[in-house]
C-alpha cells in the first residue's frame, strides 16, 4: 500500500481531491439515507424488544405485534442501513484505491433511489402483515427483481472501476470489494428463485433460507467490513499491513469456506445429517481466516494502540474487528452439540446476528464514514464530543445486547432442555433479559440520533471549516493528525 | 495483475459454485423427489396416522396466515433427534408418546407444506406436533385472541385483528368465552374470522408423528 508510505506529491493531492469530488454525490446519498434507515431500525428494535417484555402493550394495533415488528427491524437494519452504507464505502474505497473517478454519479443515485423505494415498500409490507416468516428474505416475492437491478448497477460500476484501475497489483481491500460485489447476486438470485418461484421441496426452502443468511454474512458483510478495516487501520496507523501474504491467504480461506456455512442453524434438522455437519465444520475452520485477520490487525497496530484514543475511525474499526473475532469464536463454540442443544433456538441466535451485523459490520462502517465524509465534503465533523458519545453509547449498547442475549439463551435454552419441567419456565427466565435488550436498543437509538445529526450537518455543508481533523480528546486544530496527537511524529501520513 | 484477472474471477466463481451445487442444488433435487410415502394396509399402520395427512385449501391459506404474522420467528416446527437436544422427550413435542413412538421430524413430514416453517427462535412452544396434543378449536381461538386468558405469563402477541366483535343476535357457537378482565361489553361477542379459522386448520394439521414402519420393526427386534 504505497499510498500511505510515500510523501504525497502535489499532483497526488490534486488527483485525490478530484476523485473525492466525483464520489461526493453518490456516497453522501448512500450514507445519509442509510443513516436514516439505521435510526428507524434501532427504534423498531427497541419497540420489538419492548413488546417481548410487555406483550399486551398497544395490542389493539396489529402492526405492533412482535412477529411483524421484529422482521421489519431486521430487514431495515440489513437492507436499509447495512447494505446501503456498505455501497457508499465500497464506491469511495474502490475509486480511491483504483485511482479512478466515479463517472456515473447520477446513475448511482438513481439506482440508490430504486433500492430505497423497494426496501421501503418491503419493510412496510412486512410490518403490515405481508411478510413470509423467512428471516432476511421476508419481502414480497415481486420485489426482488427491482432490488437486484438496482444492485446490478452499483456492482457493475464497482467492477468497471476495478477494470479501469491504474495500479497493477490490486490491494486486498479492492479484492474484497470486488468479490462481495460479485457474490451477492448469486446468493440473492438462488435464494429468491428457489423460495419464490421454483417451489419443490418444502424442507429445502427452509434450508436455502438459512444458507442465504449465513452467506449474506460471510459473502457480503464480512468482505465489505474487512475491506474497510484493511484500509482504515494501515492508513491511520501510518504503516503497511503487517503481512500481505497472510491477508491473501485469509481472503481465499474465507472464500472457500463461506459457501458451506448455514445449515449449522438447523443442527438436528430434517436434512441429511451430513449437511449440518459440513456447515458446522466450515464454521470451525473459519476460525483460521478469522485468526489470520486478527494477527494481521494486531501486528499492524502493535505499539501504536494509543492512536485509538484520538482517532474516531480507528476506534470504531478496532472495536468492530474485536467483535468479528469474538463472533467467530462464539459461533464455532455453539456448533458443538453440547452447546447447540441449549443455544440453537434461544435468544443467543438473536444476539449473534446482531453481533455480526451491528457489532462488527456497522461499527467498522461508522469508522469508515468518520474517515470518508470529511474528505468528500471538505469540512470536519462539528463535534468530537458527539462522536465520543456515539462510540460509547453504541459500544455499551452492543455489548449489553450480546452479553445479555447469551445469558438469556443459557437460561431459556436450559429451561427447555430440562424436558420434564414446565415450558413456561423458559419464558419466565427470559423475561428480565428482554428488558435489558429494550434498554440497549434505546441507548443505541440515542447514539445514532447524534450520528445522524452530525452526518446531515456535514452533508449540507454545516461542518467545521478548519485545517485540523476532528480528534477525540483534542480541541480543533490542536493536532494535524491522530499520529501527532498521540506523539508519533514520524512519517507524514498526508491528510489525504 | 491484468493477466491474473481471469484466474481471480475463476477462483471467486469456484468458491461459490462448488458449495452451491453440492450443498443446495443436489440435495434440493433429491429432497424434491421425496414424495410422501403412502402406506397400504399391509404396512400395519393405522390409516389415521398414515401419510399424506389430508390437506384442504384452508390449510394452505392457514400456512400463509401463519407466515405473514411472523409466527415462525418465535415458534419452531422442528423436533431434534436426541443427539442434538431433548426435544422429543418433552411431553407432547415428539407426538405419539403413549405408544413410545415419539420421534424427531423428518423431511417427508413437511412434504405437504409449501415451505417448512422450521423457525428462527423458540420463544414459544415447538409446534411440529401441536395438532396432536391439542384438538380443541376453542383452545386455539382463545390462545390467539389473547394468550393471557390461558396463561398469565405468556408473552405471545394478541391477534385481536383475526377476530370480530359483534352484537349478539343469536349467540354464535364459535364465540370465544371471555371472562374477567378479558370480557367484552354486555350484548357483544367475539367470533373468529375466516383467517383465524384457516390458521387453526393449519395448526391442527401440525402432526408430524406418523409411525415409521422400519423403525418399529427395529424396536420390536430390540425388545425381543
- Output the number of helix runs of chain A: 17
Which radius of gyration of chain A do the C-alpha atoms yield? 22 Å
CATH architectural type of the largest domain in chain A: Up-down Bundle
What is the tally of beta strands of chain B?
2
Indicate the proportion of strand residues of chain A: under 5%
Global shape of chain A: globular
Helix/strand/pairing category of chain A: mainly alpha
Our count of domains of chain A comes out at: 2
Largest interface: A-B, 89 and 75 residues
Order of helices and strands of chain B: HHHHEEHH
User: What is the overall number of helices of chain B?
Assistant: 6
Question: Which properties best describe this structure?
Answer:
heterodimer; A: 496 residues; mainly alpha; Cytochrome C Oxidase, Chain A; 17 helices; globular; disordered C terminus; B: 224 residues; elongated
Explained architecture:
The complex is a heterodimer of chains A (496) and B (224). Chain A has 496 residues and is mostly helical. Chain A folds into two domains: 7-168; 304-496, Cytochrome c oxidase-like, subunit I domain (Cytochrome C Oxidase, Chain A). Chain A has helices spanning 2-5, 10-53, 66-98, 105-130, 144-163, 172-198, 202-237, 244-258, 274-285, 287-301, 307-310, 312-333, 337-343, 347-377, 384-417, 424-459, 482-486. Chain A starts with a helix and ends in a 10-residue tail after the last helix. Mean pLDDT of chain A is 92; it is low at 1-6 and 491-496. With 224 residues, chain B is mainly α. Chain B has a single domain (55-211), classed as Cytochrome Bc1 Complex, Chain D, domain 2. Chain B is 33% helix and 4% strand. Chain B has helices at 5-32, 57-68, 130-133, 137-145, 194-204, 213-223; strands spanning 163-167, 188-192. Chain B has a two-stranded antiparallel sheet with strand order 1-2. Residues 216-224 of chain B have low confidence and may be disordered. Chains A and B meet through helix 2, helix 3, helix 4, helix 6 and helix 7 of A and helix 1 and helix 2 of B.
Amino acid at each position: 500500500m504505497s499510498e500511505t508510505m510515500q510523501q504525497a506529491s502535489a499532483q497526488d493531492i490534486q488527483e485525490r481531491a478530484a476523485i473525492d469530488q466525483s464520489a461526493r454525490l453518490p456516497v453522501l446519498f448512500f450514507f445519509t439515507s442509510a443513516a436514516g434507515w439505521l435510526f428507524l431500525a434501532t427504534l423498531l428494535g427497541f419497540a420489538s424488544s419492548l413488546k417481548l417484555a410487555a406483550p399486551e402493550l398497544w395490542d389493539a394495533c396489529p402492526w405492533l405485534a412482535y412477529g411483524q415488528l421484529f422482521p421489519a427491524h431486521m430487514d431495515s437494519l440489513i437492507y436499509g442501513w447495512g447494505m446501503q452504507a456498505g455501497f457508499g464505502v465500497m464506491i469511495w474505497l474502490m475509486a480511491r484505491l483504483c485511482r479512478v473517478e466515479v463517472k456515473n454519479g447520477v446513475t448511482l443515485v438513481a439506482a440508490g433511489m430504486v433500492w430505497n423505494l423497494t426496501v421501503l415498500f418491503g419493510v412496510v409490507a412486512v410490518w403490515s402483515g405481508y411478510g413470509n416468516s423467512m428471516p432476511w428474505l421476508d419481502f414480497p416475492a415481486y420485489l426482488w427483481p427491482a432490488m437486484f437491478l438496482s444492485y446490478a448497477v452499483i456492482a457493475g460500476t464497482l467492477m468497471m472501476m476495478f477494470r479501469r484501475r491504474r495500479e497493477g497489483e490490486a490491494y486486498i481491500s479492492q479484492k474484497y470489494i470486488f468479490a462481495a460485489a460479485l457474490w451477492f447476486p448469486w446468493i440473492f438470485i438462488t435464494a429468491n428463485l428457489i423460495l419464490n418461484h421454483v417451489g419443490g421441496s418444502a424442507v429445502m426452502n427452509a434450508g436455502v433460507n438459512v444458507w442465504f443468511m449465513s452467506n449474506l454474512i460471510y459473502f457480503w458483510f464480512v468482505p465489505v467490513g474487512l475491506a474497510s478495516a484493511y484500509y482504515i487501520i494501515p492508513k491511520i496507523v501510518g504503516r503497511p499491513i503487517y503481512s500481505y501474504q497472510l491477508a491473501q491467504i485469509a481472503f481465499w480461506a474465507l472464500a472457500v469456506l463461506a459457501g458451506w456455512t448455514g445449515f449449522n442453524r438447523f443442527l438436528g434438522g430434517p436434512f441429511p445429517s451430513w449437511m449440518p455437519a459440513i456447515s458446522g465444520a466450515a464454521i470451525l475452520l473459519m476460525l483460521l481466516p478469522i485468526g489470520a485477520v486478527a494477527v494481521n490487525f494486531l501486528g499492524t497496530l502493535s505499539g501504536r494502540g494509543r492512536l485509538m484514543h484520538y482517532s474516531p475511525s480507528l476506534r470504531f474499526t478496532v472495536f468492530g474487528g474485536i467483535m468479528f473475532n469474538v463472533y467467530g469464536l462464539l459461533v464455532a463454540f455453539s456448533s458443538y452439540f453440547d452447546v447447540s442443544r441449549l443455544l440453537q433456538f434461544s435468544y443467543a441466535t438473536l444476539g449473534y446476528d446482531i453481533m455480526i451485523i451491528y457489532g462488527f459490520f456497522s461499527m467498522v462502517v461508522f469508522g469508515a464514514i468518520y474517515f470518508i465524509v470529511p474528505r468528500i465534503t471538505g469540512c470536519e465533523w462539528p463535534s468530537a464530543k458527539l462522536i465520543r458519545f456515539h462510540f460509547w453509547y453504541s459500544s455499551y449498547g452492543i455489548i449489553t445486547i450480546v452479553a445479555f442475549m447469551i445469558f438469556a439463551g443459557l437460561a431459556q435454552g436450559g429451561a427447555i432442555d430440562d424436558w420434564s419441567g414446565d415450558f413456561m419456565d423458559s419464558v419466565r427466565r427470559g423475561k428480565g433479559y428482554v428488558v435489558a435488550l429494550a434498554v440497549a436498543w434505546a441507548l443505541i437509538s440515542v447514539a445514532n440520533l447524534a450520528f445522524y445529526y452530525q452526518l446531515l450537518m456535514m452533508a449540507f455543508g454545516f461542518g467545521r471549516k478548519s485545517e485540523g481533523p476532528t480528534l477525540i480528546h483534542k480541541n480543533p486544530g490542536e493536532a494535524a493528525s491522530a499520529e501527532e496527537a498521540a506523539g508519533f511524529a514520524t512519517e507524514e501520513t498526508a491528510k489525504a | 495483475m491484468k493477466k491474473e484477472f481471469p484466474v481471480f474471477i475463476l477462483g471467486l466463481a469456484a468458491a461459490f459454485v462448488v458449495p452451491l451445487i453440492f450443498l443446495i442444488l443436489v440435495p434440493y433435487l433429491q429432497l424434491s423427489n421425496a414424495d410422501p410415502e403412502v402406506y397400504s394396509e399391509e404396512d400395519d399402520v393405522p390409516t389415521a396416522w398414515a401419510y399424506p395427512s389430508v390437506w384442504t385449501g384452508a390449510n394452505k391459506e392457514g400456512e400463509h396466515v401463519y407466515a405473514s404474522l411472523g409466527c415462525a420467528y418465535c415458534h419452531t416446527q422442528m423436533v431434534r433427534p436426541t443427539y442434538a437436544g431433548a426435544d422429543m422427550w418433552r411431553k407432547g413435542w415428539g407426538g405419539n408418546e403413549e405408544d413410545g413412538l415419539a420421534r424427531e421430524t423428518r423431511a417427508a413430514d413437511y412434504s405437504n407444506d409449501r415451505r417448512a416453517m422450521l423457525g428462527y427462535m423458540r420463544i414459544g412452544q415447538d409446534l411440529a406436533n401441536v395438532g396432536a396434543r391439542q384438538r380443541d378449536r376453542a383452545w386455539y381461538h382463545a390462545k390467539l385472541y389473547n394468550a393471557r386468558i390461558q396463561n398469565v405469563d405468556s408473552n405471545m402477541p394478541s391477534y385481536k385483528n383475526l377476530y370480530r366483535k359483534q352484537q349478539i343476535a343469536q349467540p354464535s357457537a364459535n364465540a370465544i368465552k371471555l371472562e374477567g378482565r378479558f370480557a367484552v361489553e354486555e350484548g357483544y361477542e367475539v367470533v373468529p374470522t375466516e383467517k383465524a379459522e384457516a390458521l387453526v386448520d393449519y395448526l391442527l394439521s401440525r402432526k408430524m408423528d406418523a409411525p415409521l414402519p422400519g423403525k418399529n420393526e427395529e424396536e420390536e427386534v430390540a425388545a425381543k
